[in-house]
Amino acid sequence: MTSPLAANSARSLAWRALLVEQVFEWVPPFAAARVTTLALRAAGVRIGRASVFWGVPRLAGTGNVCSRLSVGTYCGFNARTYFELDDEITICDHVAVGQDVMFLTRKYDSRDPERRGVSSGSAPIVVGAGCWLGARVTVLPGVTIGAGSVIGASVVVSKDVPVDTLLMGNRTISLAKWR
Q1: Please, are residues 70 and 41 in contact by the beta-carbon 8 Å criterion?
Q2: For 68-90, how does the pLDDT look when each residue is reduced to its tens digit (9 = 90+)?
Q3: CATH number (domain holding residue 149)
Q4: What gap in Å lies between CA 49 and CA 128, rounded to an integer?
């Protein structure tokens, strides 16, 4: 059980994240990127040095969503990034994220027709150092993307991606072999 002080602190941080979204949603993408990143830090998101958001990301989930997002140094996030923060999302250093990328942590059990559409828990997401995620990539719950991997545009990542791998559609190519 959480203390009343911790609950008030979580509500305050959630309120700050909502305020950042409301204020900066009217700012065009790529304008005021550093200010947007500073506002997200003030709301409680852990963002490393020299990382930038070129548009306000959507932070969704229950409770203190800001505390569940951790971004490393030298990362770049394009416009309209969506974070579903029912569990931890860890983005390591030097990660580039294209526009309209979605990170989804909420799981659904589709086996029981009576419970279809009802959340059955959540799982964390980890994106390794030096990864590139193309436009409109969707990362599903419990996925770990290995360091140095490249995910092509519009790919749905439903299982772990090994280190130094190119994932394009249904093709998986080892980048280590190309060196």
Answers
A1: no
A2: 999 999 999 999 999 999 999 99
A3: 2.160.10.10
A4: 17
